[in-house]
């Protein structure tokens, strides 16, 4: 019996059996990174507190979660975490219940889940704390629940254009293909996930560093059902100075788009 049958008895016969009409109301935000790519800015502020206009990027994410029906958020903090706690407190000003999970050492984008696993709902949302997006979280969680899968990954379509003529040749150096400035399309993880607690539990260990790709691959090796959710939305990871500057400009031009007002 694989992990799917253990976690969801009878699911193989009826994938909709676990869906129901329930909603996802708990979110986890990974806000403990050092933000080394944003140095020297991140020497003074944790990356989730980097400002976009008049509010930090983490506040925008919390507001989006609240609009999606999230009522409780757990912030995993480490680097300059006391500043995040001082800024958001218990979350009451945003209409949320916020509590904190302190990391004594960096645990990666998934390792912190081991410290809070017993306090997580059966289904919960996970997000990196340094992204700007208009992603439809309600639609993502609905798809997850309707399918009854173990994990959902938010994915974003990107294009990569090569500014040179791409040449391919064979072992005798004969020209095979010549493509001028080709463009390739691919999907990247947005850093937003919906997870089932009991599918995650066997794959994590308290105090152990673990990134999200490794966790998902461990779950897949245990035959967990992992799906992707694609949303035609705006998405930026503010981890690099250029992306941070772009995010500031985009937010200032169209606040309503990101605030959902």
Structure description:
The structure is a single chain. This protein is α/β, with parallel strands linked by helices and 261 residues long. It has a single domain (3-11, 23-156, 188-259), classed as Alpha-Beta Complex (Spore Coat Polysaccharide Biosynthesis Protein SpsA, Chain A), CATH 3.90.550. Helices cover 29% and strands 29% of the residues. It has ten helices and 13 strands. The protein has helices at 3-7, 57-67, 81-88, 108-111, 113-116, 137-147, 197-200, 212-221, 241-253, 255-259, and strands spanning 26-31, 51-52, 55-56, 72-77, 97-102, 123-128, 131-133, 151-161, 165-169, 175-180, 183-196, 226-230, 235-237. The strands form four sheets. It has a seven-stranded mixed β-sheet. Strands 2-3 form a two-stranded antiparallel ribbon. It has a two-stranded antiparallel ribbon with strand order 7-13. Helix 3 (81-88) links the parallel strand 4 (72-77) and strand 5. The chain is globular, with a radius of gyration of 20 Å.
Whole-number mean pLDDT? 87
Can you say what the CATH homologous superfamily is?
Spore Coat Polysaccharide Biosynthesis Protein SpsA, Chain A
Separation, N- and C-terminal Cα atoms = 48 Å
Give the structural class: alpha/beta
Q: What is the CATH level 1 assignment? A: Alpha Beta
Q: Using DSSP, what is the number of strands? A: 13
Query: What percent of residues adopt helix (DSSP H or I)?
Result: 25-40%
Based on CA atoms alone, the radius of gyration comes out at 20 Å
Please report the number of helical segments.
10
